[in-house]
Molybdopterin oxidoreductase (Dictyobacter kobayashii), 690 residues
Amino acid sequence: MVGKRQITTMCPMNCTPTQCGMRIEVEDNKLISLKGDAQNPDSRGFLCIRGRATPEIFDNPKRLLRPLRRVGERGENRWEPCSWDEAYEQIVAAIQQTQPERVGLWRGHGTGTTGPTGNTLITRFGMLGGYQQWVSAIICWAMGGYGLGLTGALQTNTKEDMAANSRTILLWGATLASQPDLAPHLVAARKRGAHIIQIDTRRTEASSHADEVILLPPGSDAALALALAHVIVQEGLHDQTFIDEHTLGFEQFAAHLQQYTPEWASTITRIEPERIRELARRYATQTPAVIVLGGSSIFKHQHGWEPARAIPCLPALTGQLGIAGGGMGQRHGAAPESVGYANVLADITQKMPAADAIPSHMPSITEALTNGQLDVLLLLGSNMLSSYADSNELARGLDKTRLIVSYDLFMNESARRYADLVLPATAWLEDIGLKQTATHIYLMERALIPEGECRSLITILRQLAERLDIANFFPWQDEEAYVNALLAAQKTPDGQALTVEEMRRRGGYWPKNGLSHIAYQEYKFHTPSHKIEFWSERARQAGLAPLPTYTAPAGEQYPLRFSQGRTLTAFHSFFDEGQALPTLARANPWPELWIHPEDARKRQIENGAAIVISNQRGQFEARAHVTPDIIPGTVWMRDGWSGINRVTNGAPIVPLHANDLVPNIPGGQSAFDAWVEVSATCASIPTAHD
């Protein structure tokens, strides 16, 4: 690939539903320049620090460029180069020497940098091979989808609808770190006169766009939602016509709500009762009103499905579903009504008997590892230790697994400590792929020849399938034909299936077929009754509360509630916890804990001081960020640091027997709860991985 070329592509970060466009220039197989794509209809030229740092992947001395084989004991971090054939021989021999159900495939965000191309083939490989594989959304957005699915409001209105029509906007646990493309639409809505309220555990970059900021303790969101519902019903602000026609269980719900007064909620949320009443009145009367719900962090606590169950009851009570400017807004893991990718798995069936499958349930997966149920584990684009709660228990399970293979761009903590083989991954400009937002599908062209001996995930899976005699794994002529198969559900104006070539002619952009900016205009909701279910019979039958509830967290002997989430300067544990790319390493040189000045004074902790965060499970070191932007009694840190989950709970949020109540959205997340103590330390905190 010689000569200077300009190419339109997409950022490799997976800030779904945000996906930002890029304009790149390459020459002689080198990336010369990169900037935001001003013509991209979603991102409009915006590119955050994460995207702007991605050129540092290439020609990076830390990048993995050839297969490596462990030398010595696990944890010594000693390696020797090996050939691809030697790596394949070791993997194939380990798989052939065990049973298929004792082989596991765990994927992380790293396999989604070019959209569905790699992840879909992991699923196909696992199904045809009879291997264990899991829905990795249980780490992230699935817990929220589970609660929303029980109520029935899974689909969203678009950000464009919010900008044009919403009069009241509740940013409930939603941050611009997760979806930065929301910001210009918030600005547009505010200029039009919309009133924006942020509800969160801390002030974030979204706070500057809000007219009001309401801070509450982690895990108390369901209590606030129920108190708002109490006021709406008590003061007759509900839409009885909508309720009668499109919901189930209102009478039971209304009676149930009597106990959830603003005074009751105030003791839990620390919000004054009258402010709760004012918020309920504004939401119910200054309409249309939309709730932009956070995608992940809001649901990571012990009872994380409860806020996702209670909050969508608010638009149902007030008749805000199915209308412009109302309903639920853009959310990670959700989409508006539209046509997406084609199902390229329809021609195959699962080889593994259902009885042998380890479910997509984090505690069950950890237990299977610690019980020695897996002999081979392929970690594909994942630093598993940074993403699983109770990483101490997970580490014990990894240590019992005979062969662990890590596929990534850079070394990571899981690979250093437990991998036996490390395979070098291609970067996003070295593969062909697709990205989709709520409204569009975008083409990602292959622009560079892979560095060193790096191979794409598609190539590796195809070559392993050949060696393992897995038939029908890749029935397409080549990778472009495979991408065409994914696009086949989209139809051009003349009725033909969309193709890569057609997308090239259109500049790489494609507006999705069948897009509705307003969800549920036909009032057919995602429940067995097709109505919004205040009362969920399937929840009752599974032993869960049939009506939306709030359960107080189980306290511990430690005084500070620990929580975690995203920032604009990092993306989970990408790029070895951000440390492999100089720009991100400078922005995140070490773990930093947000702590309120009141809590810091009690512990004689100064801003920037070295600290230790500890509880009965473990401890890790960080620096203190003393700030009033978080409430007293709560501490917060960005996710992705491997040490974080030494202190988190790991208990199931939903029992295994209730895991699959919502079709295609398992409730399998572990709790990331932690109560901790923070103390100053004389030790210096080195830059991560020094």
